[in-house]
Amino acid sequence: MAKQVIGIIGGSGLYEFDGLENVKEVKIETPFGLPSDAYMVGDYEDRTLAFLPRHGRGHRFSPSELNFLANIHGFLQLGAKWVISVSAVGSMREDLPPGKMVLVDQFFDHTKGRDSTFYGNGVVGHVGFGDPICGHLSAELAAAAESKNISAEKGGTYICIEGPQFSTRAESEIYRKWGVDVIGMTNVPEAKLAREAGLCYATMAMVTDYDCWHEEEEDVTVAGVLETLKENVEHAKQVIAAAAMRIPAERSCGCLQAARSAVMTPPESMNPETRKRLRWILGEEK
């Protein structure tokens, strides 16, 4: 029986933790182009973990330059059913200080012009996205964090901005009035595409700063983000290792069904080339 595959997308150092064996680089070409980098695939107990540095090793791609479609499709081609997103975010709340982990459950898409769907060009799909995070996977992350005595906020709204610039003070104050909890630049359309691909997706949002709204804290800087990120990465590794052993072999959530019920175009009416490109999304890869 093949090992279950768990995908992790985040920083390039996440795969460097005790117990991960037989680590190898796997380069993948997808119907939507090349992912950010090779996937680092290794064995952890009876599981296979596949890591992708979201911005490429050496942090070479800005948020707007990421090939989100290829990144998510690559996990699908590797046989993953679950994808854990580890993301640096700014806090929009006083009680979510730098160093805090937030297991967000909602997104507000404030990006501009990113490719946000696998569908189009002769195949129409409308995936349900009311609850964009897999509640089952997020619950396992919460339990894993608790088992490691790592404080994690359960729930919250992540506003995704285009970047690469950080917010103006006016923007930051407006976002706070909208009621969002954290701010980042990468999890949309990543989460949308994971749902279209039938993958269970959950976010570990790691707070690095207070954006620029907090009067008593310094405005967000790259240096400040990197300093806090070091501690956050260590916490993320511990949670990933614990969660990997908790994730069940079979899924009982509705993520896959949501993807399979999204397509409105009958097979006989589909553009043949598009259908071929979407064979993994449509469940026709074999």
Keyword list:
7 helices, globular, 11 strands, single chain, Rossmann fold, alpha/beta, 11-stranded mixed sheet, 286 residues
Would you give an account of this structure?
- The protein has helices spanning 68-77, 135-147, 169-178, 187-196, 222-244, 255-260, 272-277; strands at 4-10, 20-26, 39-44, 47-53, 80-91, 101-103, 106-110, 152-154, 157-161, 182-184, 200-209.
- The chain has 286 residues and is of the alpha/beta class.
- Helix 2 (135-147) packs across helix 5 (222-244).
- The protein is globular, with a radius of gyration of 18 Å.
**Can you count the helices?**
7
Topology order in helix (H) and strand (E) letters: EEEEHEEEHEEHEHEHHH
CATH class identity: Alpha Beta
Helicity, as a percent range:
25-40%
Largest sheet: 11 strands, mixed
Strand content: 15-25%
C-alpha end-to-end distance: 18 Å
Structural class category: alpha/beta
CATH superfamily: Nucleoside phosphorylase domain
Average pLDDT taken over every residue = 93
Backbone shape: globular
CATH topology title: Rossmann fold
At CATH level 2, the architecture is 3-Layer(aba) Sandwich
Count of discrete structural domains:
1
- Radius of gyration of CA atoms, rounded to a whole number: 18 Å
